[in-house]
Amino acid sequence: MGIDEGLHHRRDLKLWERFGHPLDTLTVFVTFSYIVINPYTEQNLVVFIILSVFSCFFITKDEFIHTEVCGPLEHWLHALLFVLHPLVFLCAGVLWKNDVSSGFLDYWSVLIGVFMIYQILRWSIPWRMILK
Q: 22 φ, ψ to 5°?
């Protein structure tokens, strides 16, 4: 994600992406937060799977726009991220189910939340005007 974010700085984001990218992160934050605040049960697992699947599909929403504005490197990076996205949820689910995260999921959830706040601040405030 950090490399992808760096590529965004090089090309700047269109208005839709400025809203869409923090929303992508929100779907991950909600999914991770859900397993941090809820104990593992079969019912909670179903909700986690629904949230995970929703997030995996939601993050692809910008690809129609990306075909017009992204270069080959960014397309390749997005493909990698689309492969990793469900694997991250799978690993988080295994840690949650086996109760072996030792706070790792808590910290990861906070990190995702902080990254989302960064995205909101970075892409919603016209920093160029402020810094001039």
A: -65, -30
Give residues with Cβ within 8 angstroms of 66, minimum separation 6: 74, 75, 78
So where are the chain's domains? 2-131
Q: Which two tokens stand for residue 90?
A: 């799978």
**1 band by pLDDT with thresholds 50, 70 and 90:** low
Q: Sign of dihedral through CA atoms 118, 123, 124, 128?
A: positive
Q: 51-94: per-residue pLDDT in tens?
A: 999 999 999 987 777 777 777 787 788 888 899 999 999 999 99
- The closest alpha carbon to 112, from 50, 3, 31, 51, belongs to 31
CB atoms within 10 A of CB 44: 16
